[in-house]
């Protein structure tokens, strides 16, 4: 073959070099230069923009979230890809399964973000994640009969913290305790609830043996005393069709059957009772002078789901959507590596008595180490640039908590109050974070080529 002249090589490389310079080299050089100027671009700012990267709370949150992304997302996606590739290697429908797992790669980041924004909706009737979660939760933890029930400001009850309510003053034997509530829909009232009735107070001189009960009442704790039992009524202070007086038992108002009442003295529960069908209840003499408390368990609502996109869980939730997309990519690459493994080594290990877990841990994984390295490094570079998923999935209220460097770069560089100096500094920081990973990948590829 005739040796080619340097001029010929230059002519053929020139178009590629021009594109590389225009699209890569020039933007990098301009970003580095711009990062040393202020917001207007007229005054030299030195390293002030880089100092801002580590003092601004929003940028520090983005940097922290990027570290979480780099540590978690590539590891989980690669682990799932490895598991899928190994488990589907021997099943007949493995190809179909791999196709289904790989299919999200055909979906754009924008479309995936919209899909998971709906998946993570807190309303179980709209969000798939909460529909499944609530279905499991409510199977084992039923809601109470009176969710959202509450007293009015004029009622003799007040909030006690934690969703409970208590009487504003201690109760005494001989004076029926009134516990009115509102906010219970008629459809949620017990089917066998009867019109409320204020029980007659027994004589206070009669010792309480703890064995008597009020009309429709169920006493859970008995204690003797000389002052007499405490009676009362708990009812829905609402007359259908209007009318009635607040705080007064009216003829058409129903008792809150099953409402649990506790008598509390000095922070300790001394007696408990449950309201009957007509709302009446009876407590032993130990409750005399105590404050009556309606525990929060009376008002536990049906489980409304997890706030997946709240400040606490928004980053893990978005990482989950990323893994859904990229686990198929990892699986395909690892499956290709599995196909090239020397089968005689695997069979020799099984003949020597190794079980499948030992073969996987001591033979398969070490032989797949180069492929696993490619997958992890590729995904690490990818997650450092993640933008679309975070921008689309995170609601406005949690966007600051889900922030990442690529998103902060956009927010700092465009829109109202844009600061191109800080934005350029973020771009340079991203480049510096990607360079070591790329250098490691290039060295590994050259080492593999020399073998």
Structure description:
With 451 residues, this protein is α+β, with helices and mostly antiparallel strands. The chain has two domains: 236 residues, Orthogonal Bundle (MetI-like fold), CATH 1.10.3720.10; 143 residues, no CATH class. The chain is built from 13 helices and nine strands. The strands form two sheets. It has a six-stranded antiparallel β-sheet, with no helix packed on it. A three-stranded mixed β-sheet has the order 3-5-8, with no helix packed on it. β6 and β7 form a beta hairpin. α7 runs antiparallel to α10 and α8 runs antiparallel to α9. The longest helix is centred in the first third of the chain and has 31 residues. The two termini are 28 Å apart. About 4% of the residues have low confidence.
Q: CATH homologous superfamily of the largest domain?
A: MetI-like
Structural class estimated from helices and strands: alpha+beta
H and E string: HHHHHHEEEEEEEEEHHHHHHH
**Which sequence of strands runs across the widest sheet?**
1-2-9-6-7-4
What would the principal axes of the Cα set say about the shape? elongated
Instruction: Quote the CATH topology of the largest domain.
Output: MetI-like fold
Report the mean per-residue pLDDT as an integer: 86
When the domains are counted, the total is: 2
Low-pLDDT parts are: 206-217, 219-226
Q: Helix coverage percent of residues? A: 40-55%
What would you say the CATH architecture of the largest domain is? Orthogonal Bundle
SS field, number of helical segments: 13
Mind telling me the C-alpha Rg? 35 Å
How many DSSP-defined strands? 9
Strand content: 5-15%
């Amino acid at each position: 073959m005739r040796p080619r002249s340097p001029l010929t090589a230059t002519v053929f490389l020139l178009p590629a070099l021009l594109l590389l310079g225009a699209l890569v080299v020039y933007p990098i050089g301009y970003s580095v230069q711009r990062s040393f100027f202020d917001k207007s671009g007229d005054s030299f700012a030195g390293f002030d923009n880089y100092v801002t990267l580590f003092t601004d709370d929003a940028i520090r949150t983005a940097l922290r979230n990027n570290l979480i992304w780099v540590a978690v997302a590539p590891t989980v996606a690669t682990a799932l890809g490895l598991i899928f590739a190994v488990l589907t290697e021997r099943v007949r429908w493995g190809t179909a399964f791999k196709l289904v797992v790989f299919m999200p790669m055909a979906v754009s980041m924008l479309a995936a973000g919209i899909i998971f924004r709906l998946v993570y909706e807190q309303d179980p009737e709209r969000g798939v994640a909460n529909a499944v979660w609530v279905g499991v939760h409510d199977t084992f933890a039923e809601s109470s009969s009176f969710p959202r029930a509450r007293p009015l400001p004029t009622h003799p009850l007040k909030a006690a913290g934690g969703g409970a309510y208590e009487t504003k003053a201690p109760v005494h034997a001989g004076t029926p305790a009134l516990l009115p509530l509102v906010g219970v829909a008629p459809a949620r009232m017990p089917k066998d609830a009867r019109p409320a009735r204020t029980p007659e107070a027994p004589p206070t001189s009669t010792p309480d043996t703890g064995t008597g009960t009020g009309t429709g009442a169920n006493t859970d704790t008995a204690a003797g005393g000389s002052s007499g039992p405490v009676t009362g009524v708990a009812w829905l202070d609402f007359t259908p069709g209007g009318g009635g007086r607040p705080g007064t038992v009216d003829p058409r108002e129903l008792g809150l059957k099953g409402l649990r009442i506790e008598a509390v003295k000095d922070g300790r529960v001394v007696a408990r009772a449950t309201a009957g069908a007509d709302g009446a209840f009876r407590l032993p003499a130990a409750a005399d002078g105590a404050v009556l408390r309606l525990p929060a368990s009376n008002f536990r609502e049906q489980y409304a789901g997890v706030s997946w996109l709240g400040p606490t869980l928004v980053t893990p939730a978005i990482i989950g959507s990323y893994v859904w997309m990229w686990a198929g990519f990892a699986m395909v690459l690892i499956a290709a590596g599995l196909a090239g493994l020397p089968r005689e080594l695997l069979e020799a290990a099984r003949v020597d008595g190794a079980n499948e877990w030992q073969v996987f841990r001591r033979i398969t994984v070490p032989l797949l180490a180069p492929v696993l390295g490619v997958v992890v490094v590729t995904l690490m570079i990818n997650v450092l640039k993640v933008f679309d998923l975070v921008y689309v999935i995170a609601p406005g209220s949690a966007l600051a908590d889900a922030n990442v460097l690529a998103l902060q770069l956009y927010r700092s560089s465009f829109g109202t109050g844009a600061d191109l100096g800080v934005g350029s500094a973020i771009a340079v920081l991203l480049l510096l974070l990607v360079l070591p990973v790329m250098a490691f990948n290039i060295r590994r590829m050259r080492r593999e080529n020399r073998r």
